[in-house]
């Protein structure tokens, strides 16, 4: 198995042979201590074995993925690619995807604005959306067709202009409406919403989007954490989900 780094340093480190070692409590403690000393403020969320020997994958709260030696003395920051018979696999992005999936799965169902199929739900997509984004509105027009294909669409708020802006206020009004899904339909069609406030998840979801690397909308996140940026026609999205 061969691996390609965007950074050339430490090449010899990864040429060792043998099976990947499990993370021992001693190694994990040592890695956490070394990283805390070297990079104050870095919040490590998980340390796991890398797909090659004597190196561990370190996942952080900010979605940064590091690769470090067992003693924490050397690390690589950047994209790691695995060269396989089927092509090049971005190992770093796989780690990010897993983190995205876990973070979104932790969002309470009642904090989502969901559009569910009438029949069997075959797949679920999570969409970070901005009410005033033209391509978000275009994607919203595809929601009934996605539901017909058995695809559930969950909306999370990502008003790109940020807090204390008209778009942010519209998102709050939608989430606080008596019928959030209908309010979203209304807002996405350009109609006005009654201004409402309540205990709502808009800021939390906006911050979550920033933490998992979202910079624009719509941002579609599949159940496995794969992210698709921008508008995608329903047929292409169904293909990406393996439904066509």
From TrEMBL:
One of its GO terms (cellular component) is periplasmic space. Keywords: Disulfide bond, Periplasm, Redox-active center, Signal. Residues 1-21 form the signal peptide. CDD domains: DsbA_DsbC_DsbG (cd03020). It is found in: Periplasm. InterPro entries: DiS-bond_Isoase_DsbC/G, DiS-bond_isomerase_DsbC/G_N, DiS-bond_isomerase_DsbC/G_N_sf, Thiol:disulfide_interchange, Thioredoxin-like_fold, Thioredoxin-like_sf. Residues 24-93 form the Disulphide bond isomerase DsbC/G N-terminal domain. Residues 118-241 form the Thioredoxin-like fold domain. Its main location: periplasm. Gene3D superfamilies: Disulphide bond isomerase, DsbC/G, N-terminal, Glutaredoxin. Belongs to the thioredoxin family. DsbC subfamily. Required for disulfide bond formation in some periplasmic proteins. Acts by transferring its disulfide bond to other proteins and is reduced in the process. This is Thiol:disulfide interchange protein. The lineage of its organism: Bacteria, Pseudomonadati, Pseudomonadota, Gammaproteobacteria, Alteromonadales.
């Amino acid at each position: 198995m061969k691996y390609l780094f965007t950074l050339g340093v430490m090449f010899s480190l990864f040429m060792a042979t043998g099976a990947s070692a499990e993370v021992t409590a001693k190694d994990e403690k040592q890695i956490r201590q070394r990283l805390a000393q070297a990079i104050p403020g870095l919040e490590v969320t998980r340390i796991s074995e890398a797909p090659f020997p004597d190196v561990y994958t370190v996942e952080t709260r900010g979605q940064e993925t590091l690769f470090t030696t067992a003693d924490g003395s050397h690390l690589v920051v950047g994209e790691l690619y695995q060269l396989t018979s089927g092509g090049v696999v971005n190992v770093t992005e796989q780690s990010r995807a897993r983190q995205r999936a876990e973070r979104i799965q932790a969002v309470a169902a009642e904090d989502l604005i969901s559009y569910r199929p009438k029949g069997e739900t075959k797949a679920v997509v999570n969409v970070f959306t901005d009410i005033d984004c033209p391509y978000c509105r275009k994607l919203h027009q595809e929601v009934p067709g996605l539901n017909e294909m058995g695809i559930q669409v969950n909306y999370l708020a990502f008003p790109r202009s940020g807090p204390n802006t008209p778009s942010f206020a519209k998102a709050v009004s939608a989430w606080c409406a008596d019928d959030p899904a209908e309010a979203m339909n209304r807002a996405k069609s350009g109609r006005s919403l009654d201004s409402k406030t309540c205990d709502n998840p808009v800021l939390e979801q906006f911050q979550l989007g920033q933490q998992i690397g979202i910079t624009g909308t719509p941002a579609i996140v599949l159940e496995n954490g794969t992210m698709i940026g921008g508008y995608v026609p329903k047929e292409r999205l169904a293909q990406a989900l393996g439904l066509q």
